[in-house]
Amino acid sequence: MAFTLLVNGKTHSVDVDGDTPLLWVLRDVLGMTGTKFGCGMALCGACTVHIDGVATRSCVTPVDGVGKSQITTIEAIGATPAGVGIQKAWLDHEVVQCGYCQSGQIMSASALLASKPRPTDADIDDAMSGNICRCGTYLRIREAIKLAAQSSGQGG
Ligand code: FES
Ligand code: FES
User: Is 40 left (phi over 0), alpha (psi -120 to 50) or beta?
Assistant: First the structure.
């Protein structure tokens, strides 16, 4: 079945079954492999993308439920204000270890800052608790989110 998806500001036509998870459409059909597969059951956060700005697990999101929503992936997060700050803070704090979980971490963190520019510790815990990191980068992630929040405050 044919679907028209709006991904990172561009329209894509794809021909897949309606129950195909968005993750596989992004990776296998559109070749956007920055979004990762971890568990396939909404338990790890590796596959997180934004759908209309909301952090969403693409592994359990059937493509026929996406409609005309705007999908943003890790490939384009650096073009968003929150994404720029998060990426810079990630580099400043050298957050990444093996890197596998980090697309999802960055997508969850940037969705948080876009909706709450001054998150509390509880907000951060809430937004990030579903993103698992086998390398245990949690403390650096938390510090980087705080740095990005402070930096955006200084800029505006
Ligand atoms: S792969 Fe989607 S949450 Fe783990
Ligand atoms: S950096 Fe290795 S799993 Fe998170």
Answer: left
